[in-house]
Amino acid sequence: MKPKKIGIEAHALNLQQGGNERYIEGLLKGLSKINKEDFSFTIFINQKAQIPDFLKDNPSFEFEIVSINPIKRFLLDLLIKVKKTKIDLLHTQYHLPIGINIPSVITLHDVSYLTHPEFFPVCERLKMKFAMMHSIRKARKVITVSQFSKSEILKMYKVADEKIYVIHNGISDEFKPSSKIEIQKTLKKFGIHSPYILSVSNLQPRKNLKGLIDSFLNVLKKDEKFPCVLVIVGRKLWLYDEIFSEIRNSQFREKIIFTGYIDNRDLVCLYSGAEMFVYISFYEGFGFPPLEAMACGCPVITSNTSSLPEVTEDAAIHVDPENLEEISSVIVHLYKSKGLKASLKEKGFRQAKKFSWDQCAERTLQVYKNIFSLL
Fold first, then answer.
1. What is the block-wise mean pLDDT of the chain (375 residues), using blocks of 10 residues?
2. What whole-number distance in Å separates Cα of residue 156 and Cα of residue 150?
3. pTM tops 0.70
4. Domains of the chain, with CATH numbers?
């Protein structure tokens, strides 16, 4: 029997898109390792992206170029390329092209655009709200990345429980402890001095970076000799002016360092060398950074909300992201407690190992098979 051809929309590759890019790269890496005689894959990438090394010369994969511009991509490119390449099933993140007439799957990471509209620019919020209604209705199956996100989707949309599959993300095996020499080179590159506290996220209100900065400043106001600096890694996304105004007006502004977006090699080193990793986001469908930090041997403080307790379990300290006094107190306590750091480090290694891209890819293939079995 002729293999079924799966189209996977992967325009996010090489666009520094955080979780969306992590997801599609990890899924493709997992799929590339599976012996899948029943399937071949057409991967839709943007014109600036390079084919990942792990897919080069793999006969199961072919590539088509689509526009970075979302309007052109969804209204024109994908429809034309799907027809041209005779795709049997299309898998996208979030949105489906209007007019798609083949079976389809979407991965919907979270519905924060509905639950927390205040965290989004108006145009982004409206685009997500209306495009997602079409995509959820049209998709044969919806993949999401946590039990929390599934419960949120069921609350917000009239969709059958059995239509939604929970498939946890994986953590890449490149996230592992770095050597002291590698760490020192990376710290010198970015002008960072140990000890430091690390946080990694795009600069947008949902990530609660203002709360993190205020909590850190509270620590310094109580103890000006507190030795840590705060390092924040991530690219500017939207509504971030408040973050920078907070720092400009502080006497401790030199103790807060923004690196911007950095590549994974440098990121692994920063995770590995940090005293602790603090990630107090208001809302996450999954949350890659705490698990990446754990895989690198870094103790984690994270929020007690949304999916974060589900994915980190007892391997992190959980705090109320609204309670800045609690966050400040926990930062100081963890810094002073070698025993607690060691315990979180060991628990973190075990927790991160639970999340595999190979397993994610296997379960995603089962979703494809399920759809074809019902046709």
1. 90 83 95 85 91 89 92 92 96 93 96 90 85 94 98 95 98 97 97 96 87 94 95 74 64 85 96 98 96 98 98 98 98 98 98 97 96 87
2. 10
3. yes
4. 4-170+356-374 (3.40.50.2000), 180-352 (3.40.50.2000)
